[in-house]
Design a protein that fits this description.
mainly alpha
Length: 73
């Protein structure tokens, strides 16, 4: 009970920021995020989480960087 209370009182910080590359904000980076990134690029949808090289646009370089993240984790 003490540990649960400690956690509930803020022992673990809550992050309101999305992870770069986490296209669906599920807290994980995986192949689903690649599919969503490709979909955003094809449909010309802006999603800041997908701009991995932070050049202001979504493109194939972001896909390559996202796949690299997945393969190296």
């Amino acid at each position: 009970d003490l540990i649960a209370q400690w956690i509930n009182e803020g022992a673990l910080p809550e992050s309101n920021e999305s992870m770069l590359g986490d296209m669906n904000d599920d807290g994980q980076i995986n192949v689903v995020d690649v599919v969503l990134l490709v979909s955003c690029i094809l449909d010309d949808i802006v999603n800041e989480n997908g701009d991995l090289n932070q050049d202001g646009s979504l493109n194939v370089i972001d896909i390559v960087l996202l796949v690299d993240i997945i393969l190296n984790n």
